[in-house]
Amino acid sequence: MNHLADSVFELSDKEILDEVRETGADPQEEADRTSFVLRRVTDTWQSENERLSNLGHAINPNNWQCIDEIYHNYCLSCGSSVSFTTAMQRMEGNALDESCPTYEYVQKNKVVR
Amino acid sequence: MAALTREDKVRLRRSAAYRIRGLGRAAHNRTADDLLGEAQLRTLVGAGSTEGRHWKRKVDFVQHLKGAMQSIATCWKQKSGDKETYLVSEVLIFGAGGQEISPLENVASGEAAADQSLIAKEEVARIFRMFTDDPEATQVLQGWYDDLKPNELRQKYGLDEKKFAAAKKRIRVKLLSGRNGDSGGEEHGI
């Protein structure tokens, strides 16, 4: 299907819009759906990384590894695991269960001092 | 992402829909949204990792997502593997008199390859069947199936630019008419 799927990129702006209408679809709806999908994945990825960060986990963005379409990583401080897929739309794993113990220890020591 | 025009977004979605259509059973109920989302996720992961798909900023973002979707669809197809292969007998259609007909046998040009052994995929056969009354569309499908370059395809079947473009359009419109392109198909040379 490569040739077929690629052929839409040969079309001018007018041609692609006309063609979509010809199939009975609304170009604006299709464009909005694309925006929604791309934004949802981006927002989820960012908010879930923020959640990890707020829990004190140190995640190296270079360490994500994809195994069977699931992205895996781990906290550099405590070793807790975290995983993410588009299907789940959220991160899962030990790292999300609790704050990073190492981070908590450092924070407590800061307060004591 | 904000730089994408409405037309870019439509092209990306349509392209995703055709790829899902082409995956057939290998899509495992994944949709065009799933393919687009996976391409975007790989881009985000690739932004800070050796995994994922690195977006070289010199490359247009549309072209980047197009490439990512192609790679992901190929990966999904490969993972599906031989389990998705069908017997030639499964893809034969039957004429009015009950005779067996290969989906490629209705191609007008005598040069069209009709090697039944190549038609091992159900969705490809289904797509060919949709165009049995459209010789030019069948020739274009055959050329795509054989992975011919546009000029090779046009030369082989004697199609001028206008006829070639019109046939491609008929294929695209018919394949996604009255649907959003989210149902399955099967990845192949087409």
Largest sheet of chain A: 4 strands, antiparallel
Query: How large is the count of helical segments of chain B?
Result: 8
> In angstroms, what is the radius of gyration of chain A?
21 Å
**Poorly predicted ranges of chain B:** 82-100, 106-120, 180-188
Low-pLDDT parts of chain A are: none
Our count of domains of chain A comes out at 1
Mean pLDDT of chain B: 76
Question: In percent, how helical is the residue content of chain B?
Answer: 40-55%
Summarize the biggest pleated sheet of chain B.
2 strands, antiparallel
Determine the oligomeric state from the structure.
heterodimer
Q: What is the count of helical runs of chain A?
A: 4
Q: What's the rounded overall pLDDT mean of chain A?
A: 89
- Percentage of β-strand residues of chain A: 5-15%
- Helix/strand order of chain A, N-terminal first: HHHEEEEH
Q: Roughly how many Å apart are the termini of chain B?
A: 29 Å
Q: Strands of the largest sheet of chain A, in order across it?
A: 1-2-3-4
- How much β-strand is present in the residues of chain B? under 5%
